[in-house]
Fold this protein.
Amino acid sequence: MLLMVDSTRLREMLTRHAPDIGHGTIRNAALAAIEGAFLIPSAAAIGNKPARLLFLALAIAATANGIIETARAVRRRTTAETLYKEITDMDRTSKRSSLVAVTDGTGRYLAYRDDGWGCWFLPNHATADDEDTNVALIRRHLHDTFGIGPDGYDLRRVTSRSSEKRSTEHGGEPRHYEYTLYEARMRRGAAIPQGSLPSGVVCRWMTMRDMRSDKRTGETNKDVLDLLRDSL
């Protein structure tokens, strides 16, 4: 998997984790606790009472501090796995997505409620490398999620387009998208999905005007709506 990561953000992340990478910090803190513990008997053996109390307090404080720092180091220790996760979270590689414009032939399109983006969106899934595999995935997605059987529509690939927009799922950061648009035209007599479906999704039929009139959908999916307008 190829990743595209902002070098400035990567450097900042690695600098932030530098003190916590590996076991060095844990080892140093543990050694400090052990050294403090060994100093306690020596301090207790000092004959002068004021000096004994002073060195005992210092030895106990050093031991306690070493224990606390060891616990902190264990909690925040950075491993290869945690570093990898943070780096992949910064990935700005284009997200390849297949969009399916399911239409009933009257200018309406099937849309579902996307809670992650807070808007209405076309059926979609991650694009596969192979076209035959991708078409099979589309058909399975339409069947499993929307209850539309393969005999209920005619499917064709329309076009592809690149886009960049801010992702609500990534804190508003810009993300690159590679859209592949398909049209699924419903056949006469086919079952039309509507409302809450057994798969858990909520869907409705919307015209282009409906989608643009919905403020959140119109703003978030302007690139997709423009693609529909220009292609179908």
Q: What stands out?
A: The radius of gyration is 30 Å. The domain at 93-231 is CATH 3.90.79.10 (Nucleoside Triphosphate Pyrophosphohydrolase).
